[in-house]
Amino acid sequence: MTQFSTTKLRNLIAVGYVIIALIYSIASPIFEVSDELWHYPMVDYLANNGLRLPMQDANNIGLWRQEGSQPPLYYMAVAILTAAIDTSDLEYVRRQNPHADIGIVRPDGNANMIVHRVEAEAFPWSGTVLAVHIVRLFSIVLGLGTILVTYHLARELFPDNPTIALGAMALNAFLPMFLFISASVNNDALSNLIGNLLTLLLVKLLKSERLPTTRTYLVIGIVTGIGLLAKLNIGFLVPLIALALLILSLRFRNWRPVIIGGVVSGGLTIAIAGWWYWRNLQLYDDVTGLNRFLDIVGRRLIPANAAQLWSERDSFLQAYWGFFGGMNVPLPDAVYLVFNLIGGLTLLSAIVFLASRIYKRDWSRRRWLYTSATIIWPVVTFISFLRWTMITPASQGRLIFGALSSISLWMAVGLVWWLPKYWQRIATGSVAGYFAAVAILAPFLVIAPAYKQPPDIQVQAAAQTSFSANDGGAIDLLDANVLTKVARPEAFVELTADWVVAQSLQRDWSMFIHLTTPDGVIISQRDVYPGQGTLATSDLSPGKAWHNPLAIWVPSNAYAPMTLDVNLGWYHLPTGERLQLPNGSDVLTIGQVELHPRASSFDVPNPISVIFDNQIELLGYQLSDLSPKPGETTELTLYWRGLKDIADDYVVFVHIIEPQTNTIYAGSDAQPAQWTAPTSEWELGDVVEDTHSLEVRADAVPGIYELEIGLYLPQPDGTFPRLRVVTQDGGQANDFTYLSRIRILPSD
């Protein structure tokens, strides 16, 4: 391959990236890209407050939420870029969908985080919409820088094989998730560029055959300082830079790299970024500000262990390849399968390549040194990611894009190193073509349809009933059908409802769908804005009619067998007020569902499978009364079995609990079968029947309560460590499980 053709292909990939990224920027509605809903308000605040940073307070959270705790350089740069634009319409266009299924994929949609005002977002753009698109364009330019870094990094390591450089660049440029994030308002666009650029600078530093010049130290210091003002993860590169300078001093037997280089680059880094970390220390007594970040974004109730992290591997991989919206608009499963095969096989092949270099001993020590930067940095990035996601749920592969150049490089190496030159080009072109094809199609076939409003329907029959607001306005139900007649736990009940606006509504009303037991206990509910979350009732004119599919999840702990009513209605979220039916009611029963128990090989009531620590399984349970009154007793019978020989004697706890305050209104703590069947004596295969009497406290307020159970082992020091629940995918998150809800009735 000639230098001319290599340059031509490199430029073609760069142009292709820019074009596809622009498509993503236009196809993704504003604020519908991961966390853009919070990132842009941070930009807007700085633009309208003279670049003054906000104070972060978990009790007084701004529109920017946790993003106000991030290093501010990206936000400051784009705030300056958009400062002249009047964005006083921010809250008008940033109208949140309060019921958005963020991080959850549902068959009835509701993926949109914003209820969009079509006229405000139409081209030509103005106000906030214009500012968002300008910032997105800036991010695209930063992404272009990242793919060029990837190309040059590969050329540094494999100067004699341009196919590797072009392949790495293409795998980076046409990665759907990289395009998606790079075409959004997100500080990752800058931190990704800096993390990968510093990797390139490290490689060039270690590859150098001469002592570095002062200019080299200046560049490293400036880029590192920028990085530490871009995102905290860049800080993990600082020890690698220091180590590289030490290695150079040892190699050249000269103290200048480690002393002069350290002082110059380190001093510049501190001069550029130090003020922000000092500010955190002064304001929050925390140099990184991470504690305030976590106070706002939220911590896991129980830190994730290895099993839990492993169970989240699918979401990690999906969000590496392409998982759009608020982690709720996925690609088809088959697309992920191909991506996973390509990624897994190429990285495994790259490991074989490196092992072969060790075996053949055909690389010099110096080559191993500068190559190691592209291996160590992805490993450090991944370990730091694991540490972070142990604390807060963040299993998204895009969070390791700070090492994307190195990852793409080794994927390209693994793809071609074992092939003849001709087939190297064929393999690279084929895989790059697959990446590009998915990247081009995703905005049109996956992203845009997720936010499309339902089409109007023709009203051909009289309304079945009408829901009216006290302040005027009405919405008529044309037709409703429960499509699922028989259901089991852990499945969806699907239904449809056709609506027409009879009179304009002044406020935004939410639709609710309840699955309700004969005792009036709501075992599951679905709250949505109409039109799969895309419509706001205050926008709708009389005569507007649409078809509304709905899906409501039957929880795993649902008590069966039972006949459930499917109830429907409307309410105003800020006040709780409901629309009224002509008969004065506010709930309409549109059908019933027969809830059947799970299939089970065990002869137990209400079969269920809850596994505790891979030792004990709850097979089923039975309640004598789902609706007790204060002072009354209900009996819960649990059916257990041991999954292996159990060394300890665990205590079962059962609570009727108010989950908001964790107040226990009835409880029982005992070894199984009233202390007569300790777990250490269980025989494999035996089913243990375990009954607990729960007397409801006299001061219990009528309402819906949760029934919580679990197991613990009392310790000599007075602690009570609980066994963690093992989910179907191997995760271990909670140390309790809820069974059926309990309704406490009023006293006579």
How do you describe this structure in short?
α6 (127-157) packs antiparallel against α7 (162-173) and α7 packs parallel to α19. This protein starts with a helix and ends with a strand.
Walk me through this protein's architecture:
The chain is of the alpha+beta class and 748 residues long. 41% of the residues lie in helices and 19% in strands. The protein is built from 20 helices and 21 strands. The strands form five sheets. It has a five-stranded mixed β-sheet with strand order 5-11-10-7-8, with no helix packed on it. The protein is globular, with a radius of gyration of 30 Å. The chain starts with a helix and ends with a strand.
Low-confidence stretches: none
| Cα Rg | 30 Å
Strands of the widest sheet, in order across it, are 5-11-10-7-8
Q: Please, what is the average pLDDT?
A: 96
Lay out the secondary structure:
Blueprint: H1 3-27, H2 36-48, H3 73-82, H4 90-93, H5 118-121, H6 127-157, H7 162-173, H8 176-182, H9 188-207, H10 214-228, H11 238-252, H12 256-284, H13 290-297, H14 306-311, H15 313-321, E1 323-324, E2 329-330, H16 333-360, H17 365-391, H18 404-416, H19 421-450, E3 465-468, E4 474-482, E5 486-487, E6 491-503, E7 510-516, E8 522-528, E9 545-554, E10 562-571, E11 588-595, E12 607-612, E13 616-623, E14 633-642, E15 651-658, E16 663-670, H20 672-675, E17 688-695, E18 703-712, E19 725-726, E20 737-738, E21 742-744
Parallel strand pairs: 5-11
Antiparallel strand pairs: 1-2, 3-4, 4-6, 6-9, 7-8, 7-10, 10-11, 12-13, 12-19, 13-14, 14-17, 15-16, 15-18, 18-20, 18-21
